[in-house]
Amino acid sequence: MSQWVINGIRRGIQTTAYPAKPETAAGVSPGLPLGGAYPLEQMNSLMARCPTRVFSARDGQLVVDERHCIHCYRCMHGANQPVNWRQDYEWGTIRDGQGEFGRPFEKSIHICVMDAGDCGACLNEVRQLNNPYYNMHRLGFFITPTPRHADVLLVVGAVTDHIKFTLQKVYEAMPTPKRVVAVGACALTGGVFADSFVCTKGVADVLPVDVEVPGNPAPPLAILHGLLVAVGRKAPWSPAVQAPPEKETPNESGHAAAASARTKA
After folding, report:
1. What φ, ψ does residue 149 adopt, rounded to 5°?
2. 239: preceding bond cis by omega (within 30 degrees)
3. Nearest to 93 by CA among 66, 126, 128, 131
4. What is the three-class DSSP state of 53?
5. Does 13 reside within a domain?
6. pLDDT at res. 97
7. pLDDT score at 104
8. How does DSSP classify residue 75?
9. How many domains does the chain have?
10. Percent of the chain, pLDDT > 90?
11. Is residue 61 scored above 60 in pLDDT?
């Protein structure tokens, strides 16, 4: 026991400084593909390789729908002309038609986490938020097991047919005002299971979703950003077609690019 205390004193506080400061530790984000101007041959190759139709072409630009990305990395590994890659993590977006969030959620909030047919990956990333490194309690975020006390419903999974009724009842049991945050490609679009006989095309087919966090799975900092967006403490990410960066490896340039993007925002 004494050795643990000594080691703790030596190491100091290990909790991430995000959102007060950008996170610069390696491995906090799997990144996302980057759209922009690509040669026609490369765009056709990327569209053909993607199993979930992330890529499309518009006005000579490669358009990336991050909501569909399952992180299979086929566009990065094995491709003759790989896509450019970004390694930021502030991915929370406000779903179309939803208004601004604010005053009712400025203080401590309680979050009800709903497994709507998750494989365990996204749920495990959500679980990390309670760990010492991410420590979401410092931001006033607390998990509650009952929807009666919840301000935010956080849903992971593709919403199987067996869980739809329960999901609706959980939402109806929450007091107003309330928010719904969908996390992960399956919760956003159904992922690889969409249009099947067992599930929907995501949470929005069943409930009004306020904030979406892409990824498969979404990393903890992306989920944390989505929660901050839901309570009006952070600006949402605005996905857009972007020009590809200079040729650099993600490990060397990802965090610098992410920090620059957040500074401009």
Report:
1. -110, 5
2. no
3. 66
4. coil
5. no
6. 56
7. 67
8. T
9. 2
10. 67
11. yes
Contact 101, 144 (CB under 8 A): no
pLDDT tops 50 at residue 265:
no
Let me know whether 62 and 158 are in one domain: no
pLDDT over 50 at 158, yes or no: yes
pLDDT at residue number 100: 58
- Beta bridge partners, 94, equal 211
Same domain assignment for residues 152 and 171:
yes
252 or 78, higher pLDDT? 78
Residues whose CB falls within 8 Å of the CB of residue 2, separated by 6 or more in sequence, listed in order: none
| Residue at 223 is within a domain | yes
Q: Which residue has the tokens 């566009």?
A: 75
148 touches 174 (CB < 8 A): yes
- Number of residues that make up the chain: 265
Residue 195 domain flag: yes
3-class state of residue 111 by DSSP: strand
Q: What pLDDT sits at residue 99?
A: 54
Q: Which residues of 37-60 are buried (b: 16+ CB within 10 A; e: fewer)?
A: ebeeeebebbbebbebebbeeeee
Q: Which structural domain range is residue 257 located in?
A: 32-88+239-264
67-93: pLDDT as tens digits: 999 999 999 988 788 999 999 999 999
Residues 6+ apart with CB under 8 A from 9: none
Hunting for tokens 């990802």 — which residue is that? 254
**Contact by Cβ (8 Å): 69, 189:** no
Distance CA 28, CA 131 (A): 14
Least confident of 115-124, 154-163, 229-238: 229-238
Tokens 């009712």 sit at which residue?
104
> pTM (2 decimals)?
0.84
R_g (Cα) of the chain, nearest Å: 19
Whether residue 156 is contained in a domain is answered as yes
The torsion angle over the Cα atoms of residues 227, 211, 190 and 118, rounded to 10 degrees, is 20
